[in-house]
Amino acid sequence: MRRLLLALPFALLPLAVAHADDDHDHEHASLGAHEHGVGSLDVALDGQTLELDLDGPAMNLVGFEHIATTDADKAKVAAAQAQLGNPLVLFSLPKAADCSVEAQDLQSPLFEAAPEEAGGVAKGEHHHSDIEAHYAFTCSKPEALKTLDLSKFFKTFPGTHKIKVQLIGSSGQQGVEATPQAPTVKF
Fold first, then answer.
1. I want to staple 68 with a disulfide (CB 3.0 to 4.6 A). Which of 74, 91, 97, 119 is the partner?
2. SS3 breakdown of the chain: % helix, strand, coil, rounded to 5?
3. Does residue 94 belong to any structural domain of this protein?
4. May I ask which residue range the UniProt record assigns to the signal sequence (predicted)?
5. In this predicted model, which residue has the larger pLDDT, 123 or 178?
6. What is the DSSP letter of 24?
7. Tens-place pLDDT, residues 51-78
8. Mutual orientation of helices 13-23 and 2-11 as an angle, nearest 10°?
9. In the 8-state DSSP scheme, what is residue 68?
10. 27 lies in some domain
């Protein structure tokens, strides 16, 4: 399944290129660009296994990208990490699908380094930090997975204004954009 998620961006590359050409917006044309307010979510459903890979600037989730040094910043990082650690609340999956979390992995320089250990970033130097999360769910009734509702995600992390979703499900592959005004993605 992990290979399927890794192949997803390449499978949907023609959609991304076509979208970029339509927009004539070169900032969106480069895949993987660090853009504040925008995140990406790869979704793959294979049998009873649902995997989500989330990637976004730390700015979207905690309001900054530097290593937390103040108690307030450390609290924001801890809160974001705790919220990301509860994916069944954050990503509203249909209850009828009966999904349970099998694995999750959260990664960010903000989660790992203490300020004195961070090294390399001089005071005043701008540094881009991303937060990545991988979730694997087992859904006993995957046929009930008709939608993925990101409303709670947008409410929890209001610095996220758009999520570029690439999805492979039972009805094929698609690339869509979710926003707070249109937070639901259909499988």
1. 74
2. 35, 30, 30
3. yes
4. 1-20
5. 178
6. T
7. 999 999 999 999 998 889 999 999 999 9
8. 30
9. P
10. no
